[in-house]
């Protein structure tokens, strides 16, 4: 089964909005084993949308549109699909009922009511969050156009709860895709280690580098999900083995999503002390539901005064070594742990930039320390090559802190091999 | 001048990567007044990329590709563009020199060296961050194909420093685009207020809703940037006036980017005390370079024990009202300010979910307080409609805290009108 995505919205072509919808839809199609060979963006323009729909229907079995279903005048997707498929818009009773529920006692305008009109013969997909329902419109020869709303918070639940079950009846075969996530290795080095594993056609392995992270994707295609997974599994294992302990997980979302469950399993607690990351590490930790079981206290000691008062960093030490120093990072981690009764303390101090650097302590220099009952471990991030920005630097520093803790918790060497 | 974007990468069609590159390129083209009418994604497949390139060149003057320039075997963009434009790949001396500098004393593989090959007659764009240079390849009839690397950290500086100056010579006319950002109004309500302003063809105004935020985009097209801005300005003012004090800025990146400079200008300091947002508010504040002038201490008091110890929240109060209560939010804000010598204190306590709700205190209930020398102000976020998730809830709560401070700093009513 071949599919294409057509994302509708002038804001996408002006670069005001990033097309996350297409990625969400692509991921679901991939999991269903549907081949997505094209994705397009068109503006809020009925003529170009019509051209794109007609062309897509000549070569694909399934066309999924995102956006243009709302109440405003430039929401044109439904009208255009109705024209292309020859199915006139009709009021859909259940969708109107849901709109009425949504508005309750508030008045509903004619434009709002327009959202309850669907092309004749559609299968409606209720909107769990917003007002515009989605739908699947038959387009002849067993083909379908599926219309989804633009806001990701509306699209995502509709996709999972309604569209995927709808498509499962049509999809043949399945793709299994595994992401082997790493921290502490570059793409070039990773490629060298797995070079001879990347030549196959099914399963395949390929390296990808994103902002501050490198991962390997292993993909296999087979008759069903279980067969595809079984086909991919040995290659996933081989990649893991080659890359070694820089691999922090397969199909996990982040370092913190690996570290927090392990802390919770062990019933051990963590205290954070952050200077240049300014709360980012605590934020990442508390992104994880259930973090409260192991994380009670986080300190953002951006100023020296806060480092002294909340963490007891000695004024002498700050004067002698400066706030950005291995001594202060260690002291922050150690005192965070001991003063606030944690099993672990993490301390981060550095210069995230773009300003504040000196020849001796350049922008990008960050010290990261982990304190546990049996020792303190230090990482140094030194500026390498060109400065990649404040966000990158802070994110990377928080990653190093989580990686130190991961290595301790899983009994790995404290530095990448 | 008409342009299209072709993004190359199987990871985009599998949904593993979100296409931020296309948004970055689209924004630059829009600023240059270049009409972007189409954007596509194709996988790492030379045949489909070739088809897409040939089709794009029949109807557009400029085709910009992103991705597929790296050293690995599935990086095929350069080879395919060379075939389509008939310009063979040749070693480019300056690019090879830059590669040599990048690698320094480390060995450079043949695959790495491949990156210094460019189609004959290209204008090279050096890569300030990574290894693969970009280039502009003449495609006949005054048309060009511009090749850019996939990693956004490489693409962005290349775009700004090299591609925009290159294109400025070819672009005719300019688009001015203004984003009027709001906090505290829904899309429906905003549309009603500006309904009669949204009908024009040039300038145009349109509402957009993204995750937890609503903005109005005003766009005008004219012969040059100054004329386009002058054309848009009266409509921007009219939109601002209609929407009132929910507007926090025009062409600003975030609430914090408005609040922090004003705090810095006033020389006033802020202390944060966060429970459910777990550091997110401090992180947003310290996203702003220069935050250290006004932000020295942030407290993540996730546990009751931390609320008592660091903020002096009375145990009796926690027992009587619970940690998620107006009393505790006020006390957190007030004591953050007084104990840590700030001019302002912000306190947040709530239930971000997905677990931890009770009938009396459901998931999504958050109390947010601002303390200043002359009073304490409270906001309540009550769950409305369906639960939109932990990230949404935390982000919205931090937004409310920043909006309270914004209203105080700019002398506005403390709640939206």
UniProtKB/TrEMBL annotation, chains A, B:
Residues 4-169 form the MoaB/Mog domain. It comes from the Bacteria. It holds the Pfam family CinA. CDD domains: cinA. It comes from Desulfovibrio porci. Belongs to the CinA family. This is CinA-like protein.
